[in-house]
Each structure stands twice: as structure tokens, then as C-alpha cells.
Amino acid sequence: MKNKDITNKALSEGGVNRRKFAKRAIQLGVAATAASTGIVSALSLLERKFYDQYDYVIVGSGAGGGPLAVNLVKAGFSVLVLEAGSNDASDDTHNIPAWHPFASEDRKLSWDFFVKHYADINQQMLDDKYVPGKGILYPRASTIGGCTTHHALITVYPHNNDFDRIAQATGDISWDSANMRRYFERLERCQYLARPIFSNPSRHGFDGWLPTNRGNPALLLEDPAVLKIVKAALARYGLEGALQQIVSGNLRLDINHWDVAAGQEGPFIAPMAADSRSRRSSVREHLLDTQAIYPNLLHIRTDSLATRVLFEGNTAVGVEFLEGAGQYKADPYYDEAASSGVLQQVRASREVILSGGAFNSPQLLKLSGIGPAHELRDHGIDPVVDLAGVGENLQDRYEVGVVSEMSEDLALLKDCTWGEEGDPCLNRYRYGWLNKGPYSGNGPVLSLVKRSRPDLEDPDLFIFGVPSDFHGYFPGYSQALKNYKDRFSWIVLKGHTNNTAGRVTLRSADPRDTPEINFHYFGEGNDVLGEDLQAVIEGVKISRDIMAGPLVSNQISRELLPGSEVQSDQQIGDFVKNQSWGHHASCSNKMGPASDPMAVVDSKFRVHGTNNLRVVDASVFPRIPGFFIVVPVYMISEKASDDIIATAVGLSA
């Protein structure tokens, strides 16, 4: 059968005939695919080596979709990954760990969402990062590998309770924390510890696809001021004498040790997702390496924006998408490319899997008729399944920066020119051997894990120090790295937040539109006791205490944030409410049993009320896990692989 005929058959079997498909293209203001218009020849489609049907179609190539795609392919299934972005993440901006801020503002890789922290515009405008008429910048990536191509590389395991609570809520013992650790062992290739010969009490992985390493602690010896800050932080834990052991590598302070997952506090050195040559490790490399081995099974279609899931009744049978660069309004190149999209469809003989993340997966579900029926009808979308929880329960961390101006430029960075011609730090990174310099690390020199209150089951504060000025995301924020070499910041991150009041709602029925995103911070949320705010206040106080001690205070010119005028708890609280940010959006397609009216997926990632449709990304967590989201998402991607393959071979319901 000719390629064109196969496409026609797919359109017909997918419940969308040629006339309806052409009408759909007109509604979107784009061209239809060759099957409907004949614009592109069947030969050209074949030359691109894309098929019209795959076993699985996965929307999104990031932390959720990428490892899943690889595992399905290795199990012998054909997989199409639809990626709305391109394949441009291959240069120094992407690869060099210390350049991650530049990667997050690289126009070739970026989707720039602007979100709301509050519905109250007067409160929102108190944030220095607020962009009038837009909101607060929330950087996302649009490229093969998704946000793993631009994130800060911090690789931290969550707490056991994060998984045990899911097991309890769903009755699915496969979510038990001891079992879930297997997935971390499967994906990690730990390169900063010696491979155990006999037992493995740390439960690290050593043969996985994700290399993990530590920055070189000996770099601390190159900066006396930073060295004193680290020593002052260690003193809070009675470890003043441990500094030399840390610098020499003898005391590893391993935050990803299995024992720590039970809720240990202390100072730690957070590993990063980087290989032995100090280059970023991401899902991108994992996907492309696998595609090179299985070119006939794994197809990655870039510049392809999913517009809706195709259904026959309640059964997902395929995906409609716009082919063309810059089709989404979060793309910096959208205005140049908006009219060039070509509407296409592809069928999935087994399942469709959404892995677009906490913003795009609920948006795509709603565009496909899965969500609160009243919201769908308001936008002219016929409901397929009335699921009230789609787009609800949105969660994030709270973060603030305690920023100090030092009395002089930090020695660690004073010679760095961030890629300008003759940059000595770049030359050292490229040609150094044992010590590749400051660019070989991702920034944090020490991390402190602490409970904000002694009665908490797990620590909820992750406070990490970076030799730079960082106080959140705003257009051009990465330039602060270049502009200021005399700044040190403690970033206070509040994990296990109580607020679950965030929402992702449709702005329109146009799939190129970004959704409305409002996290409803603090007083607008449902943390009725205000525990989140009190925890961040405590974190600010800890950070200030470190910098006010005798070891450090004479190195500081002034505190920039919160600033010397901010002293009382009330004042610190106002600062926190005004200036907090987050970048771990999650939980907007909550996992739970069908008896939970707000649950969107079951414990096997299947969308309630549908067949052959799953969601595998950060949106499925009922509560935001741990301190950093990427490792939990990698783990559920590995788990979903097992669940989906078990279904395919008839081993599970």
C-alpha cells in the first residue's frame, strides 16, 4: 500500500475523515498534510522515514518521555516521539555545567512561559521579577531531551515517604519505596564512588544511562572567601574540622545514599548529571544514542507540536500535530513561524503516552476533550471524559535568594569571561586534566538539608550556596553571572510544600496558545496554617546566620537581599511572599484511585475513563516529591516502562 493510502486509511479509522480533517486545518489556519491536500508527495514522506502508525506514540522527549521511549524500543516496540522543539542542544551552552543559566535563556532551546503567583495583581506587582502584562518568567525547554538540556544538573534522590504515600493511597505496592529504589539503581551510572565489590548498602547504580558526578571540591582552595563560607556552614553541624576531608574527597557527604532517603539532615555535596569529562548528561544523549542503535524502531519527529489526542469512543488511537518550527506561543520564534505549520496525524496501534510536563500535558488532555466538562464547553470543546482534576492540584517549591555583595570579586570567578575570546576559564575547562576549573561544576558549593520544625517527618529545607547573584528568573537573569563576580547567594528551597491550589486552565481552544497558569502562592493557596511561609522564613534566618558569623562577616560589603532593612519575621515574611519563585511545576494530573474525584491517572499511569492513554511526567505526582523533581521523574519513567511492557505482553490488567 502506498504511503498516501496508508495515511488516508489512518484518517478514516481514526474517526476523522478527509473533509473534517481539512476543516480542522482551516480552523487552525494551517495547511493540511499530504494525505488531505497532496502538497507533499508520498515519496518525500518516505524519504523522511516516518511511518503513519507505530506501536506507541509519545508526546514529549524530556525526563518522562525519553527514558520510556528508549525502554519500549529496547523491548522491541516501534515508537514515535513527537517533540515540539528542534535538535539544537549540542554546543558549549548546553554541555558546560556552569553555563546552565545561559542554556535556560538560549532562544534555540527555550519555551518562555509567563505564570502568575497570585490572582491579586497588586500583590503580584510587588515581585521585582514581574513583567508587566505577562507575569513571572518560567523557563522551559523545547528540544530533544526537554528540560534536562537546560536545568541546573542537580541530581538529588527524593524521600522514601514520597513513594510510600503513593503506595498507600493507591493500594499498589509496586510504589513501595524499597521497590522504587530499584529504578534509581537502574538509571544511575555513579562515577563519584567506587563500584562495590560485594554488597551495595548505598544502593547507587553503576551501570545506568545517566552519569552522575560531583564538582571538584578542591576548587574551594582557590577562593579563600568561599572557603570560609563553607566552613561557617559546616560549623552549624559541628563539622568545623571536616573541611579538609571534604576538599580531599575523603568525606563525600553523599545525599543520594540509601540511608539519607529515610530523612537524614546535614550538610551534603549534591551530585550533578555530568559525565567523567564534566559535560552535561541528559535524556537527549540517551535518546540519540538509542536511535543510532535502533533506527527502524525509534523515530523522533522534531518541530511537531501535538494539538490533540485522537479517539475512537474513549480509546486513544493516535495524535494530531502541527509540523513546523516555532508553532507554540511560548517559543521565542513563534511570530516568525506561526503560519507555516502543517497539520498531520499519526496512529498508535497500542497506546498514546503524554509526557509534556505539568503545563502541557493537562493542556493537551483538555484540548482532546479530557477534563472538567464545563471548562471544555466554555471553549467549544466536546467532552470525551469529564475529569475534574485535569489541571488542578498544581504544585511547586518556594525558593528565595539571600544575596550578599562581597568586599571584592570572588577569586574563583574573577578571571572568567563566560565564553568571550581568550576566556581563561573556558580554556581550562577544555584542556585541563585533573582540575578543569569553575566551569566544570554547576554552581553549588555546599547544600544544607534541614527540618524547619523538629516535628516534621522529613526535612523540608534544602539550602545551597552558589558564588553568584541568583534571586529568581526574569528575562536576562543569566547576565547577572557576567555582570557580578562579587556576589554570593544562599538559595532557600522549601520542599514538601503544603499548598496544592495551583491551576492550569485553557486560555483558548487554540493549541498554539499557552495555558493560564496560576500557582496561588501563600495566602491565596490552601496552606491554611501558613507552614510553608514559616519554613521559608526559617531558611532565610539560617542563611543569614551563616553570613553573619565571625568567619564570614568581614568578607561582606553588604546584604543585597532581603536587605538590612528587613529584620522582623513579619518583614522577612513579606519579602518571601513578594519575591519567591519556583521551577519544579508538578502534580497537575494527580495520580489516585478512580474513587478520588480529583484523580486523573491510576497507579499504572492510565487516564481514568479512557483506554490506551497514559500520562508519564511530573504532572502525575499527588504531592511534589523530594527537593528536585528530575530524579523522581526519571524513576517514574522507568517504572512506567515496566507497567506498559507488562500490559503489552499480557502480564497485567
Give your account of this protein's structure.
- By secondary structure, the protein is an alpha/beta fold.
- The chain has a domain at 215-251 and 395-579: Glucose Oxidase, domain 3.
- Strands 1, 2, 3, 9, 10, 11, 12 and 22 form an eight-stranded mixed sheet that branches. A six-stranded antiparallel sheet has the order 8-16-17-18-15-21, with helices on one face. The protein has a two-stranded antiparallel ribbon with strand order 4-5.
- α5 (65-74) packs parallel to α13 (283-293).
- The two termini are 35 Å apart.
- Residues 1-15 and 34-48 have low confidence and may be disordered.
Task: Summarize this structure as a short list of keywords or feature phrases.
eight-stranded mixed sheet; FAD; transmembrane; 29% helix; Glucose Oxidase, domain 3; single chain; transmembrane helix; FAD/NAD-bd_sf; 18% strand; 653 residues; six-stranded antiparallel sheet; alpha/beta; GMC family oxidoreductase N-terminal domain-containing protein; 21 helices
Compact description:
Belongs to the GMC oxidoreductase family. Pfam families: GMC_oxred_C, GMC_oxred_N. The protein is of the alpha/beta class and 653 residues long.
Number of strands: 22
CATH level-3 fold name of the domain at 215-251 and 395-579: Glucose Oxidase, domain 3
- Helix-strand category: alpha/beta
Assigned CATH superfamily of the domain at 215-251 and 395-579: Glucose Oxidase, domain 3
Overall geometric form:
globular
What composes the largest sheet? Answer: 8 strands, mixed
Query: What is the helix fraction of residues, given as a range?
Result: 25-40%
